[in-house]
Amino acid sequence: MSQQFNLAVPRVNNNPFLPDGRIHRLSFFLTMLVLCFISSWFVDFSSVYNASAGTVNVKAIGWFPVIVLVLQLFACIKRCRDIQYSPWSVVLFIIPIVGFIYGLLLLFKGSKYPD
């Protein structure tokens, strides 16, 4: 008697605060778009950059860019799971041109799992 092995399909998780699960292309695009808009809206360069002294007030920016970066990494990790790539491949975003191409791949490559 033969047994069939069922591979567990990761569930879809659209919660941006958790790195588990997977997300589809549209959810990935909207998550990245919203995070980019939020980060650009919160950073007011007129209060952060002192033109006369040529300095940047790091305390005015705070931890917000780090939080946005972590949420973007969570979205990329979930998208990697959806297209069956290793979540560690997110490290490719460190390399400038390769990171841009990899981001386009995450955006346009279809899911490997049935919906």
Question: Would you tell me the structural class of the helices and strands?
Answer: mainly alpha
Q: Major beta sheet, specifics?
A: 2 strands, antiparallel
The main sheet orders its strands as 1-2
How many strands? Answer: 2
Average the pLDDT over all residues and give the rounded result. 78
Helix amount: 40-55%
Overall tally of domains: 1
Share of residues in strands:
under 5%
Low-pLDDT ranges: none
Q: What gross morphology would you assign?
A: elongated
Describe what you observe in this structure:
InterPro entries: DUF805. This is DUF805 domain-containing protein. The chain crosses the membrane at residues 26-48, 60-77, 89-108. The chain is mainly alpha-helical and 115 residues long. It has one domain. Helix content is 50%, strand content 3%. It has a two-stranded antiparallel ribbon. Helix 1 runs antiparallel to helix 4. The protein starts with 24 loop residues before the first helix and ends in a 7-residue tail after the last helix. The model has no long low-confidence stretch (mean pLDDT 78).
